[in-house]
Design a protein that fits this description.
It is built from twelve helices and nine strands.
């Protein structure tokens, strides 16, 4: 599957994956895809960065290979490893002593264990998601440079593996730290912000079947107010969807419905925020 321009990509993301993308994001993805460049997406947690990579896999009709980053991540977990137990068994089966001609070739393809990045390069067109790259250490970023530059991995025992068709690479960052400039230089970039109330209401209707239109508007207006406050944890788009689902499941049809109060557990993730969140939700009820 291909797309002729950014507008076409917006339509395909909506129709094939149910992902409502802004034109800026679609344009960045369009240019990255056709330029064979990785796309670095930054933004607050829960704004749809990971979901965008999954949506692109659906639009392109490609498998997705995901690397979830964390401190201590190394090459054996993301590039490749060797099946050491199988190698040892082969070595024992070959015997020892003077039978050197019977020793197996230990660094053979059959002992190679492919990890997500190598699978994305070797097994045909794919979408490669490097999720939350800001959580990994700088040593891990250095491992990525060859992949992001030339879509290849060097295995000393076997040589260099190059992708016949470059994967579409998406890196995400919650900006807990700045990715290295060497990573940024190799990528196209887009910041995903919280959606505005109108777009967020459309997203809620897409994810919460039967949600009352007035309730969707009230929820998104409340989220816009909450995101302007100095909260420990501002509500993300994902939490807005959780809140709308909770309201719907509780049978609430308006913000002032008594059942709505129980849904606050989906929004408040830190005790210090609870009073402010309740004030904003109460103001929405009073207005309506």
């Amino acid at each position: 599957m291909t797309f002729g321009d950014a507008t076409h990509l917006v339509t395909q993301l909506d129709q094939r994956a149910g992902y409502l993308a802004g034109t800026g994001l679609a344009a960045a993805a369009f240019l990255a895809f056709h330029g064979n460049r990785p796309l670095l997406l930054e933004g607050a947690p829960g704004v749809g960065k990971t979901a965008f990579a999954e949506a692109m896999a659906a639009v392109l009709d490609r498998p997705i290979e995901r690397v979830q980053c964390y401190p201590g991540l190394d090459a054996s977990q993301v590039l490749y490893d060797w099946n050491f137990p199988a190698q040892m068994l082969a070595l024992r089966a070959a015997g020892t002593g003077d039978h050197t001609d019977r020793l197996p070739e230990l660094w053979d393809e059959k002992y190679l264990v492919e990890r997500p990045i190598l699978r994305a390069l070797r097994n045909g067109p794919a979408v490669l998601l490097i999720d939350e790259v800001d959580r990994a250490e700088e040593d891990f970023e250095a491992l990525l440079l060859q992949v992001l530059d030339k879509f290849e991995v060097t295995i000393p025992e076997l040589g260099t593996v190059r992708a016949d068709v470059a994967p579409f690479v998406v890196l995400t960052s919650n900006r807990t730290r700045e990715p290295h400039d060497a990573i940024k230089r190799r990528c196209f970039y887009h910041w995903i912000d919280h959606p505005g109330p109108e777009l967020e209401a459309r997203i809620l209707h897409r994810h919460v079947e039967g949600l009352a239109p007035g309730l969707a508007v009230a929820i998104t207006e409340a989220m816009a107010q909450l995101r302007r406050l100095d909260l420990v944890k501002q509500p993300s788009l994902a939490e807005t969807i959780d809140y709308a689902r909770a309201m719907h499941r509780l049978g609430a049809t308006t913000p002032d419905d008594p059942a709505a109060d129980a849904a606050i557990c989906t929004l408040v993730k830190h005790h210090d925020d609870e009073a402010q969140v309740r004030r904003v939700l109460a103001s929405q009820r009073n207005v309506r």
